Structure formats: structure tokens, C-alpha cells
Amino acid sequence: MRSLDPACKFVGLLVPTFFLAAFSNPFWNLVFFALCFLGLCFSKVNLKVFVGIMAPVLLMAFAMFMTGYHFPAQGNLPVNAQSLHISSSAVYNGLLMSSRVLAYAAAGLLFALTTDRIIMVRSFQQHFHLPQAFAYGLLAAWGVFPHMAQEYRRARVALRMRGQKAWPVSPAVLKPLLVKSVRWSEELAIAMESKGFSGKAKRTQFQPCHIKPVDILFLLLSCVVWPTLLFLL
After folding, report:
1. Which of 40, 49, 154, 201 is buried most deeply by CB count within 10 Å?
2. Can you tell me whether residue 198 is helix, strand or coil?
3. How far apart are alpha carbons 203 and 200 in whole angstroms?
């Protein structure tokens, strides 16, 4: 998954979610979740990061199951619950809601944990014609984020040295951070203008993003084969 073009990967993961929304069947939601989970395993993502993100996702899925279980839909089910070995509409409704949470979360995690953000911006700019101003802005913002985190820690340490309580969202911590963020953005904008960066000028690509045969194969499997299976089965 890491070798796929980010633009193709984005389309290949977004399109199946629309088809899942059109079908009220928890089985296909769980199949999609299993496929995304296998993709994460083969991509060798950071296990600690994956577990840390999946913990609230599983909690949300459990909450959605209990919500659907206690507030089932009245009337006929979209499929025969008895053929799926489901005892009641409450269980089926809970499985439907919780499985959708797992499916959509798995698709987002598969894209986020296997995609380099710099290559993603370049791919979106070249394939989706993302305006240069937005592309430069995203790259610049990601460059400023580490400095913001460091400044946030410095502000909290400075307040503790003075014997003052520093809550995580205390105005005494956020105000200096906001002022310095504005200064950084102004300095960065001036530096980019002085170096000739412009949102309208035509530029060559330092790192062209080419669509490979494996990208086309992934799009065919996710945008053609997967919807066909949903309609036929």
C-alpha cells in the first residue's frame, strides 16, 4: 500500500465507502474492514500508533452497537435476519451501525498510516490539479507544526517554573503560541515571495508522480470489482 500513488489510493478507498453506504448489510462492512486490516498488516505500520488509534474506534463501534441494539429500526429488515442467523432486528441494527464505523475508520487509517504527506500533496497537485497556493500552504503548515509543539512545551515549562498552574488549554499557554504562529506565518509568506513562489506561475515538478500499473490494478479492484460483487452477491 505504501507504493501506491496517493491520488489513486484516495479514490480507490473513497469510492467503495459510497457503495457500502448504499447497502445495509453488516457482512460486507466487516469484509471491507478485514481487507483494510490486512492492508495495514502487510504495510508494516507502527503497531503502537495503530493500537492507540484503534482503541477509541473500537469504543465508538461498541457504543454504536449498543445504540442500534437498544433503538432498533421498526418495520421490515432490508434482508432476512434469519438467513444470517441473527435472532432479532435489534442485533442486526447494532451490527450494521458498528460495522460501518469499523469499515470507514479502517479505510481512513489505511490511507493515513500508509501515505507520506509530502508525496500526497505532490500527487494531489499533479493529478487533481490542486492549486499551488493550497499545496504550498499545506507543506508550510506541516513544517511549522513541530515548532508549535516545541513552543507549547516551553510555555508550559515556563509557567511551572514560576509556580503557576498550566492547564493544557490554558489561555496563558495558548496566547503566546497564537502570537508566535502569526509571526511564523508572516515570515514564511515573506520568504516565499522573496524566493519567487507564486500561485499563478507555471513550474516544473521536482518529483513527478507517475501512475503505475499497480495503481490502475488497485483502482479496478476497488472501483469495479468491489461494486460488482456488492450488486451480484
Report:
1. 40
2. coil
3. 9
Q: pLDDT tens, 137-192?
A: 788 778 788 888 888 888 888 888 888 877 777 888 888 888 888 888 888 878 77
For the chain, the domains span: 6-120+209-232, 132-194
The 3-state secondary structure of 65-100 reads HHHHHHCCCCCCCCCCCHHHCCCCHHHHHHHHHHHH
**What is the number of alpha carbons within 13 Å of residue 19 lying toward its C-beta?**
19
Side-chain-side CA neighbours of 136 within 13 Å: the count stands at 17
By the 8 A CB rule, do 233 and 22 touch? no
Total-model pTM: 0.77
The answer to whether 124 touches 7, Cβ cutoff 8 Å, is yes
User: Which residue's entry shows cell 452497537?
Assistant: 65
Looking up cell 514560576 gives 162
